Structures are given as C-alpha cells and as structure tokens.
C-alpha cells in the first residue's frame, strides 16, 4: 500500500466513529397540545401572549407571565413513567405541577370553552414534535364546579377515549372517541404518554354542553369560542419559545429525581395509593419533571415515584432512582461531535497533502 493510500485509510478510520455518532447527537422530543377541543394554553397562545383578549387568559399572564404561552407545547413531566396521579398534586393538574404553568390551574368559570355534544367526536392533538405513545382523555364528573381547584377526584376514573399510535394528519394526531352525556361546563383532561421515554404531556380543555359558544362569561353564552393557534402564529412565536426540543423542553428537565426509599411490602415495589384508578393506570409510561410547584425539585407529592417502566418496579439501587427523558444529545453533545470530526478531518487532509508531496518528489539513486 502506498503512503497516500495508507493516509486515506487512516482518515476514513478516524472519521467513521464520528459519522456514526452524529445522527444520535440530533435532538428528539415530543411536544404539543390538544387543539380539538382546544386546551387552555393553546387557546391563550392563539389569543396572543402579549395581549390576550379573554379575562381568564389575562389572569394566566398576570400569574405567570407570557413565557408559558410561548412555551404552549411543553406542559410535560420528563419522568412521569405513567404514574401521573402520584406525581401531580390535586389543584395542579393543568400545569402538571410546574410553577411555570401555574396560571393554567386558576379555578375560574370563565375559561374560554369549546362547544361539545355527547356522542362520537374526532379529536386533534397538535404535535410540534411527533413521537409514538398513548393518548388518554378523561372528562369531569357530573356536578363538576369549575370555580374550584381541579382535583383527580373530579375526573371520571377511566378514560372515555384511549388510543395508541394514532394517525398523524397535517401535523396533528387524529383519533376518535365517544363523549359521555353531560350538561353545562366541564373539562377534558388529556394525557399523552410517550412509549420511547418516561415523558408525558398534559392538557386541560374547557368544554360546554347544551348550547352556547363557550365565550368565557361563565355560562357559555355571548362571546367567541376559543380557537387553536394557526401555523402562522406558531411560526411567528417560535423565536420567543424556550422549548429546545432536546427531550427536556425549555426548563432544566431531565435532572435527577431523588425519590424516597421504597416502602417494604414484601415485593420491593412502592405501594399503590388507595383507590388507584384512571390516569395512573397508563402502562406505557413516559414524561417531564417539576412537581409540587418547584421546577426540577424532585418532590413526589402523592407517594413514591415510579420506575421508568411504569409498573412500580424497584430500581434496585436502594430507592435512589434516576429518571431521565433523554432521547438524543443536547446542543453541547452535537458541538463536541462536530468539533471532533472537524479536527480529525483537518488532520487527515494535512496528512494526505504531505503524503502526496512526498510521493511526487523525484527519487535519487545512490
């Protein structure tokens, strides 16, 4: 083998590992929100983060600023792993227990509401970063009072619609369900549990049965029904979003969650809370951090944290579990990979040029 060929082989061998790792350095994430019926955060985003029209959306901004509306597609928990009821406290369902989105939890009877009727309905969930997973929709029980903080006990124990891997149509997941009989104002609560990580996403959609257009006056009378954000609105507001789509969203998600020691029940598994039903039964667990109104605090308000498998299994580390929703490298990983590859390729190019110059020199016989 000539000197130049040996140099070329060396360059190929040196750059191959970087070529293999570069695709995995690309970020991956799931983000989105229910748009039919439109969620609170999506509806307020559509009204305009800086100058929302409805009283409820104005109150949301007053409570938490405009950033939650720019980050409308990131109401998530990175390590939920299917145990939603245990990690999201009562009164904080709409924010998923995250301080940034606390304005979504305001108990009000004037949230803009989508007109709804019982029977078959086609639901749409806008996915700004699609991923495989399971969607579950819950509706509030008869007698629900929107002027009181939303608790898990306000929801029916079982989802009225559940689907895994629905079709993606024009940027939205589309699936059907049968809406139960209701009258007046109610709320549809959605859980999108990813199947490729412990991350899950949550939404609250206000709906009104029996007439009216849900314009936000408490009784569902005069006013304009909420609208989902348009593609143009999403594009225009993207530059102010802190959602990086790197698997953790705009906050420091994916940080270590230190859980309490698992209770001894003879199985080595955390005990299930009494009356466990509904959203906590998701089997393909996945989602974000930030419970108990503290971002990334690791608080577990409703009991011991679950394993990433969503089955309450023991982590095998003495109760110190770490749940990360990383499905790709972050920006620093990409930069390191690109920098390393560039350095190797530059060195290889220098080596090739040197080898060719040497081979081109005339040889002198003694």
Automatic annotation (TrEMBL):
Residues 1-28 form the signal peptide. Residues 287-309 have a biased composition (Low complexity). Residues 232-258 have a biased composition (Basic and acidic residues). The chain crosses the membrane at residues 335-355. Residues 31-207 form the Chitin-binding type-4 domain. It comes from the Bacteria. Residues 310-319 have a biased composition (Gly residues). Keywords: Membrane, Signal, Transmembrane, Transmembrane helix. InterPro entries: Cellulose/chitin-bd_N, GlcNAc_Chitin_IntDeg, Ig_E-set. The keyword Signal applies. Gene3D superfamilies: chitin-binding protein cbp21 (2.70.50.50). Residues 215-333 are annotated as: Disordered. The keyword Acyltransferase does not apply. Pfam families: LPMO_10. PANTHER family: CHITIN-BINDING TYPE-4 DOMAIN-CONTAINING PROTEIN, GLCNAC-BINDING PROTEIN A. This is Chitin-binding protein. It comes from Streptomyces carminius.
């Amino acid at each position: 083998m000539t000197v130049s060929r040996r140099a070329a082989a060396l360059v190929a061998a040196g750059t191959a590992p970087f070529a293999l790792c570069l695709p995995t350095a690309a970020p991956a994430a799931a983000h989105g929100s229910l748009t039919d019926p439109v969620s609170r955060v999506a509806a307020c985003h559509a009204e305009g983060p800086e100058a929302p029209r409805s009283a409820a959306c104005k109150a949301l901004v007053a409570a938490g600023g405009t950033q939650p509306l720019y980050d409308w597609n990131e109401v998530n928990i990175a390590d939920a792993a299917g145990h939603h009821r245990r990690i999201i406290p009562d009164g904080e369902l709409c924010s998923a227990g995250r301080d940034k989105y606390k304005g979504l939890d305001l108990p009000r009877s004037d949230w803009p509401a989508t007109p709804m009727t019982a029977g078959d309905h086609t639901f749409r969930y806008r996915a700004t970063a699609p991923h495989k997973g399971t969607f579950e929709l819950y509706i509030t029980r008869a007698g629900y009072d929107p002027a009181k903080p939303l608790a898990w006990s306000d929801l029916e124990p079982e989802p009225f619609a559940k689907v895994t891997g629905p079709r993606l149509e024009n940027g939205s997941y589309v699936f059907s369900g049968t809406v139960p009989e209701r009258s007046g104002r109610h709320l549809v609560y959605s859980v999108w549990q990813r199947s490729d990580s412990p991350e899950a996403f949550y939404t609250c959609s206000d709906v009104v049965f029996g007439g009216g257009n849900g314009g936000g006056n408490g009784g569902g009378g005069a006013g304009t029904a909420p609208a989902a954000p348009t593609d143009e609105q999403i594009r225009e507001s993207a530059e102010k979003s802190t959602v990086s789509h790197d698997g953790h969203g705009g906050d420091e998600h994916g940080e270590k969650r230190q859980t309490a020691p698992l209770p001894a029940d003879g199985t080595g598994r955390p005990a299930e809370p009494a009356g466990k039903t509904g959203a906590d039964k998701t089997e393909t667990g996945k989602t974000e951090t930030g419970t108990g109104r503290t971002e990334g605090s690791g608080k577990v308000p409703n009991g011991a944290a679950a394993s990433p498998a969503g089955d309450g299994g023991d982590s095998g580390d003495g109760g110190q579990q770490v749940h990360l929703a990383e499905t790709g490298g972050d920006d620093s990983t990409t930069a390191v990979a690109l920098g390393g590859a560039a350095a190797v390729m530059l060195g290889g190019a220098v080596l090739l040029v040197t080898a060719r110059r040497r081979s081109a020199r005339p040889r002198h016989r003694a």
